[in-house]
Amino acid sequence: MKNQFGRVSELNITSEEAEGKTRLADLFFTAPFKVMQPFPNGEGLQVMMLSASAGVMAGDVQKFSFKIGEKSCLEFVSQSFEKIHKMDEGWAQREIDVMVEKDALFDFYPQPTIPFAGSAYKSKMEVNLQDETSRFGLYEILSCGRSASGERFQYRFYHSLIRIRREGKLIYRDNTRYDPKETKMEGLGMYESYTHLANLFLTGSRVPEDETEEKVRDVIEMTPDVEGALTRLESGDVVIRILGRRAQTLQNLTEKIKKIAV
Prior knowledge:
By secondary structure, this protein is mostly beta strands.
């Protein structure tokens, strides 16, 4: 099944450092994507993606590519919640390739994803960190669907594969497949009555094993009506999972964590 545009939709961004500032060295996109004029954001730039589409449709094939040049700092955000629409057949898919060079910083921070009833979606993200000085942050929030409309976990499937490598060595792999017909999504070991999930990955240098880690744990514990935990990987990097009942609650909590993990 072809998407509504009849081709792969692409977004390619390359950043570089020049005279102590981050700038976009290259930018390319096709329908339905557009990019706003970048905003200054601390030590770098914030790039916001816009979409002329009402959401992700059956047959959509999207490819994102980010190359974060040495000493540059970039944050990628999206304009609105990602809506994955009902699909009578087939599925939509997105591939994301990221390269973060040394002394560079990249934050991937899109708006929350809402998989509508009957939707099917596959996502693959490959992240390559050049060395220990390459800083990266992944901030994702996935909802159960349009819960206010009675659509709790009524999508066909949601599949996400994330692989992160440093100096070519695999340091993190998350292969998640949610199939509500096969799995009791609100049962024990899954969402357990919660409706939203925040999934965060942060390079270890951003959350040292000192008061910074304790601050992250504290801000999770002090947030009402959520359950979450921080895990330190063998590589020293950090994974955080948080369950909640409102996207805004998890967004606010993610913002607090992001400010701590500089």
